[in-house]
Write a structure and sequence with these properties.
Chain A: InterPro entries: ABC_transp_permease, LivM-like. The complex is a heterodimer of chains A (321) and B (293). Chain A is mainly alpha-helical. Helices cover 74% and strands 4% of the residues of chain A. Chain A contains 14 helices and 4 strands. In chain A, the strands form 2 sheets. A two-stranded antiparallel ribbon of chain A has the order 1-4. A two-stranded antiparallel sheet of chain A has the order 2-3. Chain A is globular and about 55 Å long. Chain B is an all-alpha fold and 293 residues long. Chain B is 74% helix and 2% strand. Chain B is built from 11 helices and 2 strands, in the order ααααββααααααα. A two-stranded antiparallel sheet of chain B has the order 1-2. In chain B, strand 1 and strand 2 form a beta hairpin. The radius of gyration of chain B is 19 Å and the shape is globular. Classes of the chains: A mainly alpha (321), B mainly alpha (293). At the A-B interface, helix 5, helix 11 and helix 13 of A face helix 4, helix 9 and helix 11 of B.
Chain lengths: 321, 293
Amino acid sequence: MISLLPRGKTLVLHIGIVLVLLALNFILPEYHRGVFSRVLVLAVFAMGYNIAFGYTGLLSLGHAMFFAAGLYGAGLTIYHLDWGVWPAFATGLAAGLALALLVGALALRTTGVAFMIVTLMFAQVFYLTTLYFTTYTRGEEGLVLRQQARVLAFPGGALDLSDPSTRYLVALTLFTLVLGAVLFLVRAPFGRSLVAIKENEERMRMLGYDVFANKLLSVALSGLVCAASGAAYAVLFGYVGSGFAAIQYSILPLLWVLLGGAATTLGPLIGTLLMFYVIDLASSHTTAHLLVVGLVLIGLILYFPKGIVGTIRERWAPWLP
Amino acid sequence: MAFGPYLLLATLEGLVTAAVLSLMALGLSLVFGVMRVVNVAHGEFYMLGAVLAWWFSTMLGGHPAVGFLLALVLSPLVVAAVAFVAERLVLSRLNYEPEATIVATIGLLYIIQQLALSFYGADARPVEAPFSYRIQLPWFGYSAYKLAVIAASMVMMIGTWLVLTRTKIGLVMRATQYDRETAQAFGIPVGKVYAGVFALGAALAAFAAVLIVPIQQAHYLMGHDPLLLSFIVVIIGGLGSLRGTVVAAILIGLSDGIVSMFFSPTLAKMLATFLVAMVLVFRPQGLFGAAAR
């Protein structure tokens, strides 16, 4: 019987990683601390994507809409209604969850490639919607949130989210919460049944599981986490634009997850981090950074098809969650 | 102008879109049907075709038709060669795993796009049409070249259909599509067939692109929109159904032409995308596809 709470090596590894990330806040030079804050927020996006793709086997190409729902839910309420960060963040989460339930209920009627195309098309509709309401969203140009609006009020204090250190720590807090939740999820019966659905849907149906309900819940949860990442992005970096709803932002989490390792808890972080630095290094040495990214992708898929963490798990450390 | 002429103009423009789209979608559908590979780089093969068309057509002086014809022959061949090599080097080694091939073709997309940007640049460049007659319709003159595009696309579609249904090559392709193992057992070189199909798909996209460059200019980002549209066409038409692909392309091309002439283009795209998605939700096998095997 597997305990719901991680123990031993697993627990040490995950706490260790969070502690290293915490320490990096005080060690990293300014530029890299900025990169890491961004990576931590986007790794949450990747972890959310991983719930649907990695664990449940739902290859969606529409997750940008969930990220953007969080982004716009939080950003628009702050910008137009002068809401505080807490209610705005909650609005972002609610928007993402509602959209995920709606889109999930419709798109899950299809499977395989059709599911991929349908989610891609819904995301495209969402993207076009953000362009259509340019009066409120300012389309591609986007909105910049005022610094005074990005203050997280606490009973007995307030955090200025535009401060680099605070931003890093808030991003790390969100990352840690989601990492903990995923670690819990993979041991919980619900998480197990998701993996079982990925492995053999028919058998799960025969065993009496409501496959559709489980998948819908997976999409909803995945959408919620992605929306959390989007809402956090809006309040931490103060920018909201329709570029985040474009197809590219649906492809990126897929690449991050595959690179790091699908259905691993730490893969999304490793994948996001590596991809960021590959692009960063490549673009400082050559203007042709897309070429490098393309070659890296092909190389990885040829030689590390399970992703980095997935390969490590397969060859050396079968206990990795 | 009254309503009628507008509608006619929109219909003609829609048919031109449909002609190009059906060629491109046919390429995607072949690759998808025979190899079960979702080729995300298909739009870049299209772009590459257009960029090469500019290149070949400017190499020669003289009458624009000479350069255009050269491009029409050479650029699909070059693109097919590129696709063939990519298939042998990458896709075949991935054993055609659906997820792996998607990632690999995304990688390919980035590489082709970057090479086009580096060697061709970020400008949009025109290719001169081989002829520039205008056909005088009752209300307006219409470019004869655009009508020729529609005709060329039809010829090409019929040609592909004949190859698929009437020749040994087509038979071999269909055999591989239905049952890979059995085909292999009967001595069909499945690997070579796959590489050939992938190259053929890319060549069809490139051919469509050469037809379009005298109307739209060649640009390194031009592959994205037609990629999305041809995905939609392939799925709506039903996997592996040539008839479905043509019908869906005409449907999408016409509605795109007509709706964006009478309404806001963004709203039109929004509604069209949404409606098509809903069709798929309630009829996942597409309009003409058989139920999933």
